[in-house]
Amino acid sequence: MERGLITEAGRDDGAGGAIKYRTTAMFERVFGLQSLSQLPRLDDVAGDVDDLRERLHAVAGQRTA
Fold first, then answer.
1. Using an 8 Å Cβ cutoff, are 9 and 20 in contact?
2. What is the three-class DSSP state of 36?
3. Where do the structural domains in the chain lie, given as residue ranges?
4. What distance in Å separates the CA atoms of residue 21 and residue 19, rounded to the nearest whole number?
5. Dihedral sign (CA 23, 3, 29, 52)
6. Residue 56 in contact with residue 49, Cβ under 8 Å?
7. Backbone CA torsion sign across 22, 26, 32, 34
8. Other C-beta atoms within 10 Å of 44: how many?
9. I need a labelling partner for 56 at 20 to 30 A (CA). Which of 13, 21, 22, 44 fits?
């Protein structure tokens, strides 16, 4: 958020009202993208997508703790 790459996009309706984020046009410019569809899919980046998802959730949990 400090660099203008993401911005808040509302809150989740569920318990705790987690903040939702979205990328900005600056994100696309910085990374040389015409659109977000140019980003690789998770299964293209890692062999075990479920393992990668679990690791990402663990990191996110540590940052909010």
1. yes
2. helix
3. 1-34, 40-65
4. 7
5. negative
6. no
7. positive
8. 8
9. 13
